[in-house]
Structure formats: C-alpha cells, structure tokens
What we know:
Layout: E1 4-5, H1 11-22, H2 29-42, E2 50-55, E3 58-67, H3 75-84, H4 88-109, E4 116-124, H5 129-143, E5 148-154, H6 159-163, E6 168-174, E7 186-193
Parallel strand pairs: 4-5
Antiparallel strand pairs: 1-2, 2-3, 3-4, 5-7, 6-7
The structure holds coenzyme A (COA).
Amino acid sequence: xxxxxxxxxxxxxxxxxxxxxxxxxxxxxxxxxxxxxxxxxxxxxxxxxxxxxxxxxxxxxxxxxxxxxxxxxxxxxxxxxxxxxxxxxxxxxxxxxxxxxxxxxxxxxxxxxxxxxxxxxxxxxxxxxxxxxxxxxxxxxxxxxxxxxxxxxxxxxxxxxxxxxxxxxxxxxxxxxxxxxxxxxxxxxxxxxx
Length: 194
Ligand SMILES: CC(C)(COP(=O)(O)OP(=O)(O)OC[C@H]1O[C@@H](n2cnc3c(N)ncnc32)[C@H](O)[C@@H]1OP(=O)(O)O)[C@@H](O)C(=O)NCCC(=O)NCCS
C-alpha cells in the first residue's frame, strides 16, 4: 500500500477514531468533533509529509511530520472556527488546547536540530496500519536526509506503542494545565534514530 498525501475528505474518519480519546467530556458531540479537528489541523503543515494510507478508498492510517519550527497551516481555519462558537466555555477550551499544543511543539523543537523531523500526528484507524505507515514514512524521511525523528505524546495517547517499538524517552514531564489534584497529566518526548 502506497503513502499518499492526506486528503481533507478523510477528516471525518479521522475524527471518528479520535473523538473518544482526545475531546473534552461534554454532551455536545458537534463541539467535540470540532475540538478534535482543531487538534488534527494544528498538527498539519503544508509540506510534503502529510501522509495517509488507504485500502479500497477507506482511510487506514495517517502520519504527519514537519521540520523544526515549521508553522502549522491551521491559523485561518482555527480563528474562524473559534470566533464562530457562541459558547464562551467552548472558545476557552479551544484556546487551552491550542496553547498546550504550542507549548509541547516548542519543547520538542528544543531537542531537535535542522537535520531532525518531528512526527506531529500518528493515528491508525485500523489496527495494524500504524506500523505500516510509519515504516514507509521513516524511509521517506531518511531519503530526505533527516537523521532523527522526534515526537511528543501524552497520557491520552498510546504511549506504550513507542516504548514497545524502540523509541528513546527524551523527557517525561507533567502538564499542570490539564492535571487535577492527585492526577498528573503526563507528557513525553521520544526520539528515534532514522
Ligand atoms: C499508536 C497507533 C497509531 C499504533 O497503530 P496500530 O495500528 O495500533 O499499531 P501496529 O501497526 O503496531 O499494529 C497493531 C498491533 O500492535 C499492537 N499494539 C497496539 N498498541 C500497542 C502497544 N501500546 N504496545 C504494544 N503493541 C501494541 C496491537 O495489539 C496489534 O497487535 P496484533 O497485530 O498482534 O493484534 C494507534 O494505536 C492509534 O492510532 N492510537 C490512537 C492515537 C494515538 O495514540 N497516536 C499516537 C500518539 S499521539
């Protein structure tokens, strides 16, 4: 199966997969989907490393990546979506999420050189396709001359997948903004030599 450039028509499938994992526990499913779409878009750039794999037209996995400091392409969409929300709590939730992503991106960039690539979104919508897409994506990064792949993740993600696939933990931390009394919100930066 070949890597292809991500097509926006697959956004609903991606959101279906992630909405239960990455959205706040409010009743409003439309807002939850918007919240997750915002996360996906903030991890996308306009470069040539926004990959997906499909099988018979169905999305199986995505792997987005960027260079150190590369800016995401979501600003216009984010602002319009944010400003259109009439509920101020929802607007605040989007702001907090955006600030968290920016903080974690900056942290990850601080461990990178210009020769490294950051995996910014890694999701399989069908079990077994995560490894397949990442193996091909890593070949692509190597061919482009990148030396290491870095990524950040957190306790709402499949952190153990990285631990079990040879990734080196560079930093483990707690994000106070999402922590509750007695419940630390853990964040991680991992590195893999290409
Ligand atoms: C992380 C992710 C992309 C991995 O993709 P995947 O398709 O599940 O993983 P693989 O391609 O390795 O194939 C699935 C196999 O890995 C195994 N696996 C899944 N998570 C695992 C883990 N944490 N540790 C070890 N094995 C794991 C599955 O059990 C399955 O094994 P099987 O084929 O024997 O049944 C996927 O779990 C996912 O999309 N998670 C939600 C989003 C996320 O957390 N993304 C990453 C951090 S931001």
